[in-house]
Write a structure and sequence with these properties.
Length: about 400
């Protein structure tokens, strides 16, 4: 077996790709092993690390893509700043080792609960440097917020999972840390009521920064609503939200549960987990599909982004047999396709080796665009071959 490649600068990264005689498996910290694991020689960006530029006054940071997310957060917190899109750490859920890196976050467009307020990871990328499949180093965008030249290409690389190029450097917008935050929990009786409650909260002028659900072991369902800012503003908004949301059920203030919402640590024992993204108003359609196929076994569910993000999971007792799981997976992706969303198989022991689409199958029109882009950026077809297909 060929040894892994660890470039230490952009020149050696470019040479490694241009000299490659076959497929390359692109890795960052190795913590987000989602989708089909590509074959080929491993190429890791883990040694492309270091913060190149940080200007707290300009709210911008530039770092190499192998830089650990924890290192970036440590530097930011010293200036009372943060990555406002609060990227998920997949390690506990997926049972992976390694270190989450900036490159992995951007390549997978990893965004947390605050996305409903501030946007996704890709919305914070001001510029990128990357090496395409022919070994050419490309730079796009800029290092300051006023320079948005080529901004669409910056966004294109976010969420491409290393299939269009290998990121080497990212320029980011950062934001100040809020003075304080508070969370309300509203006890609701159904998923329909949960979606209605979150929609009502997000429809207020009180600048909600988190709207999700939490389900207790006994099945009790709660909606959690987060607000952030100055203490006086928090008190006022919490009082107003309690008034606006009282019709949905009993309300209480709770300690921050957002690490559970963001990283799903309690879901680690589950065998199979899907991540589904649809319009919040369509969340109930997805849940209905799960009910249809799992009426005898049950399933785990958590909503985030006001219902626009669904986490769905099955443990050993809920799995059923393999044909039933394959049928459920295909039905989920079929329902989500009709709704214009996407469903991704995040982890599964029972489905891992099956001949299924781990990522949402593309429509014919989008598939043509995707293949055209891959033909331009990776003409030899060597970067993470088959990962998203």
């Amino acid at each position: 077996m060929s040894t892994a490649i660890f470039p230490e600068d952009e020149a050696s990264l470019s040479a490694a790709i241009s000299d490659a005689a076959g497929p390359l498996q692109i890795l960052g910290g190795g913590t987000r092993r989602i989708g089909r694991i590509p074959g080929g020689r491993k190429l890791s960006t883990a040694r492309l690390k270091g913060i190149v530029l940080y200007e707290p006054g300009a709210l911008t940071l530039v770092a190499k893509t192998g830089t650990p997310v924890a290192d970036i957060e440590k530097v930011l917190i010293a200036e009372n700043q943060r990555l406002a899109f609060e990227p998920m750490d997949h390690r506990i859920l997926l049972g992976t080792q390694g270190t989450p890196t900036l490159g992995g976050v951007m390549a997978a467009n990893v965004s947390g609960p605050r996305r409903i307020q501030v946007g996704a990871a890709r919305d914070f990328a001001l510029g990128v440097s990357f090496v395409d499949g022919s070994g050419q180093l490309l730079k796009n965008g800029g290092r300051v917020m006023k320079n948005v030249t080529g901004y669409d290409l910056v966004k294109l690389m976010a969420g491409s999972w290393g299939t269009l190029g290998v990121l080497s450097e990212v320029a980011l917008k950062v934001l100040p840390v809020s003075e304080t935050q508070a969370t309300l929990k509203i006890h609701v009786s159904s998923w329909a009521q949960a979606v209605a409650c979150m929609s009502a909260a997000l429809g207020t002028p009180f600048d909600v920064s988190g709207a999700a659900t939490l389900q207790e072991a006994d099945g009790a369902l709660g909606v959690i609503i987060r607000v952030e800012g100055f203490e006086a503003s928090i008190r006022y908004r919490m009082t107003e939200l309690k008034t606006h949301l009282a019709k949905f059920g009993e309300i209480e203030e709770i300690l921050s549960p957002w690490s559970e919402v963001k990283d799903l640590p309690s879901w680690a024992p589950l065998d199979t987990v899907w991540k589904v993204s649809v319009r919040p108003t369509d969340a109930l359609r997805v849940i209905a599909t799960m009910h249809e196929f799992q009426k005898d076994f049950g399933f785990k569910c958590q909503l985030d982004w006001g219902g626009g993000l669904l986490w769905l999971g099955l443990d050993a007792e809920q799995l059923g047999d393999l044909p039933a799981c394959v049928q459920l997976h295909n039905a989920l992706q079929g329902t989500v396709a009709q709704l214009g969303g996407h469903a991704t198989l995040i982890k599964s022991g029972i489905l891992r080796e099956q001949n299924i689409f781990h990522f949402q199958p593309l429509s014919r029109a989008i598939e043509i665009v995707t293949q055209t882009l891959r033909g331009k950026f990776d003409p030899r077809g060597i970067l993470n071959l088959g990962r998203m297909s």
